[in-house]
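Need tokens for this chain, all 179 residues.
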Amino acid sequence: MTIESVAVFCGSKMGQNPLYKEHAAELGKYLAMLKLKLVYGGAKEGLMGVVADAALANGGAVMGVIPKVLTAWEHQHDGLTELAVVPDMHSRKKMMYDMSDAAIVLPGGFGTLDELFEMLTWNQLKIHDKKIYLLNSAGFYSHLINHLRVLEKEGLLYETVEDRIVLCNTPVELFNKIG
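Here are the structure tokens for all 179 residues:
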């Protein structure tokens, strides 16, 4: 499957570690350089805004998908190639999945984890077969990865963690694996 567009799930806040912002900017730049369309949550704040701004600054195509209820709260990005305002979070996730060929998950909060686990579940149920890349910036997801390995060890998963998630520590490593 050829990858032409990538959904990026990440925080609407920056987080405490400056590496999160650095990796988000680097990722946006690489997406533009590889001519991969960025599909993301539509906000101009936090890591979402950083990845979108970096892609745009490097000539990339960026589609934002934001629920109407969040247009004021997350401060929708008005400088995007495309912006879809959808009725709710479920519509946002569905549209992002439908508009992308793969997903990349950066540091984020509850929403980012929700998106990660829904993608994993949909993959497992064969609703889609899109690759999921987890960018473990500064070890942000190490505890989660360890817990997923517990699920695997306890026989609660249908396949190994690596069968469902491509684990990467840097944007460069991710783009050496994408495809």
